[in-house]
Each structure stands twice: as structure tokens, then as C-alpha cells.
Amino acid sequence: MRFQANRDVLSEAVSFTVKLLPQRTTLPILSGVLISTTDDGISLSAFDYEVSAQTQISAAVEEPGRVLVSGRLLAEIASKLPNAPVSFATDDNRIVVTCGSASFTLLSMPVEEYPTLPQIEGESGLVPADEFSEAVAQVAVAASRDDVTPVITGVQLEISQNRLSLVATDRYRVAVREIDWDGSVGRSEPSTALIPARTLQEIGKTFGHNGNIQVTLVAKDDRELIAFTAEKKTVTSLLIKGNFPPVKRLFPETVENYAVINTADLIEATRRVSLVLEREAALRFTFNVDGLTLEAIGSEQAQASESVEALVTGDDTVVSLKPQFLLDGLSAVHSEFVRISFTKTDNPNKPGPVLVTSQTSKEQAGSDSYRYLLQPNLLLR
Amino acid sequence: MDYAGRLSAHLPLATRLLVIKADGSLLVHSDGGSYKPLNWMSPPCTFAVSEPDDVQTDAGATEIWTVTHTKTSDRLIVSVHEVLHDSSHELGIDPGLQKDGVEAHLQKLLAEQLGLLGDGHTLVRREYMTAIGPVDILARDGDGRSVAIELKRRGDIDGVEQLTRYLELMNRDPLLSPVTGVFAAQEIKPQARTLAEDRGIRCLVLDYDAMKGVDSGVPTLF
User: Considering the entire predicted model, what is its pTM?
Assistant: First the structure.
């Protein structure tokens, strides 16, 4: 095999391919990147049976072939090469990489043993990349990190007609965001897919600026997977098995009791006041006609309180919230103001959930469909 | 207090706690250092009390204790100046340390809550005996295939190895085969998880409090 490629293009392609590879694998060949020549360039791919990444770049191919080479090492080399065209050539079981006056010799791994990457065929649709990337960032933070319940360590994608909704929960909060789904390129029957949150976060970052992402659900030999494709880059991930809890029905249909607050002010006040809190402790939020008062009981050594301007509609309300959980919701509303709504409950041992939604001005509710439902703690006094 | 023999050590005069055990050993403790004695003589050894000689009497000693190791002739010599408190107690038969209380309870709870493994799982029996020891739980999955479960509080590599040995043996039994493995623990070390999954063993993290039905006190949405 022999080819020549642009240094920046190659470096970007290699770093994309190896990003999702695991740090350590029980099968050393899976730590490799497969480089194979195509009609008009080369394709790079990585696969560890769970996740795969594949991309194509243009290159001047002088001699076709396929090689498997350590991914992480190649990524590091590619990112440090001098600014000159890079050429690859095989020499027995070695690969010689030359760039300007620099030259590297890498050992190649046996290509024959490398697994075949998943074939992508199935029903698919298109999502706008920027919106999808934003939605992933908004929702994935609420996914559980606890292995006790593997089902909720994923983000649930629900496709119906022309909407795609992303849902994540860790039982203390639920985050939901809906974006446009263009199912005209394939079929668009209602379907769901549960993707590991960490993988999806990486996908969101990778495809953030790529126009439209094609999303395909693949079901083959009872291994279900999902594929994301944009601009000659493809990432696939196995789906988490199991039924995602029906958390969308936890959202209240109407709320009459709510407060509207400047988002940045509330974020800063929450961060400040929670400085004196012990780990896992909650902040006390008092909403009334005068606005919002935040109080941290803290320890014997320190207490804190702060007032923030708030426009309260309905009854005065006191809730106890974990600051980090509230901040996760506030940081994701992406609007100047935020609406915090209070739901009623008949259970004295469980306060009604609090709903966080965006608000473009003091009077005008936000246009996007991000909703964040948070379970308050019990009031201690 | 002087230790003579393979090594020499001296502890200056101070108030000490001396423990003489029924096996003949002597341990010298200070008010600190937890379970660790400052000096000690392990059994087998002999214990002897003698009168101090003139030099020792002048120094203030009232009794000299000599503990001699029977095999090495190492000696621990204690000059007792004053006894503040002296008492002797019969402790009776040692019932032993019960380390596996939680593990046994987890086994009982998981056997009752096999749904945690997935739908349709049924219990065959707890402590299923094989030639090399008992498997914690033998169950059948929804399709009637055998599932061997190894339970641990902390799941490390050793536990995976143990389950692998059981699985290898059980898969030779035509009545059980094919047997799949489940490695269940309250916490599974990343290396153990990698090894287990590489061998096709499923990992299951258990929430002991939730299985016991203990409420964490923090309300959840569902």
C-alpha cells in the first residue's frame, strides 16, 4: 500500500477515528485503526464491538491495500507532524510514515483478524447537527452514572413523525428536549433507541458543525445499533437493552404556580451560596412577593443567604433543592430568563417536582422545547 | 523492658498495658497505636516471674518477668515497678469472625428478587454444590437456560476467576450445559468487569439498601 495525504486532513481524520476507542482493550487488535484505500482516497476505521467510527478522506493512492496500525500512536504522530504532505508506504509488516524530513516506522497488526464493521442499513432520518448537538448537551447531563440501573445510564431517543425527542434521567431529575426530525429520506415509523450517554455526548461534540446528521437504526441478528453519519464520518453504537422508564408522563400538564428569574443571576447566586454547603446537602429556596431568597444552612462554621429578584405567580413556595442538580438545569435552558414551576402533591413525604423551562423575557415563555423536571428534597424545618 | 535474641530492643520505663494470653504470649501496649503492640513474644513460649536482684531493686523494680521463646530462646524481660491494675478473665471458646454476613444476606435477597437479573428468571437453588465448591445461586433464565451467579460484596478479579472455574466445570454437565455466568456485587472493579465481560460473564451491580427495602431518605421522581 502506498498513498499521500494532506497533513491536517489526515490528522483530523485519525483523531476522530480513535476518539471513541477504549483506553485498554482485552483484544490488542481492537486498539488499531484500519486504513484501507478506496477509489478516490482512503478510509480510516476503528471498532471495538460496541462502538465504531469510520471516515473517508481524499488521498493520492499509488498502490491499493489495507493496514492495521496502533490508533493512539498514529493519532499522536499525526498531530505532531510538520506542515508537509504525509506519505504512507508498507514495507513487509512495517509501515513507513514520512512527512517532510520526519520519518516514522510503525509495526502493522494482522488485518485478517480484524472484525468487520457493522453494515448500516435500516430506517433513517435527518436531524440538524447544531440542534442535535445542543440537545445532547442539554439532556445527557441528567443521565445516571450508577451501574445498578444500566437502563437509565443511557439517553433515550424517541422518533415520531417529524420530531425526535431525547430523554435522560437518574431518578432525581428528568431532562427532555425535542428537535426536528426529517424522516422523508427513509421510513419514519415511531421507534426508540437507548444509547450510552457517554458515547452520545462524544457524538454530539464530534458532529456539532456538520449541517445535517443522518441517523439510522439498524437491527440485525438481534444486535441493535444506531448509526450517525455526516460528511463522510460515521459513528455506530450498540444500543442498551431494556425498557426505559416512562418518565415523560411525570411532567405536569399545566402549572399555575411559577416564578420567573434572570438565569445568570440565579446561577451565580446558587454557586455563591452553596459554597458553605456540605456535600450532598440541599439549598433552601423561598419564593414570595419579595422575590427569591436562597439559604444555605451549611455547618456550624458557616451559613449563607442571598436574595434574587423573582416574579412569582401564584402561592408563596419553599423548596429544598440540590444546587448541582438545579445548576445542571439552569445551564441548559440557554435563555436570558428561566421559569421555575411548582407542582402540587398530596404526598406529605414527597414534595411536588419542580419544572425548569426557558423564558425569553419576563413575560414571554421560551420557544424551545427543553424541559427539566427536578425532585426537591424534604424540607428539614 | 528488654528484648534479647535475634534483635535487641529496649522500651524505657513508663506506664504500660501488658496482656498475657492463654497461649503464653505476652503483648506490651501503649495508650495508642490501635491493635499494634509495642513489643511482644509470640507462642510457643514460657513465662517466669523472678525476684529482682540488688541492682534491679535499687532501680525500683519489684518483680522481673521473663518470657522465653521455646524454639529460638529469644527473651522478653519486663521489669515491673508498680502494678496499677491486675485482673484475669476467662474468655471461653472463640466464636470466630463473621465477615460474610452481608454476602449471605445478599444471596438470600437476590434469590428472592431474581427479577433483578432480567425477566423470567427462576431459582433452581442456592448454594448449588459442584465438585470444587458451592455456586452461590443457580437459576434459569426466561428460556430455561442455566445461569450460575457468583455473589460478592466487592467484585474483584479473584471472584471472576472463581466463577470461571465453576462455569467450566458446570458446562461439562450435559444436564446443565450451556451455563452462562453472572457476576453480581455491590461494587465491581473496572478490571474485574473487563475480565468478566471478556469471558462472556455478565456483570450486575446490586444496591444492597434498595434490596433490603431501606429508603435512602432522598425522594426520587419515580
Answer: 0.78
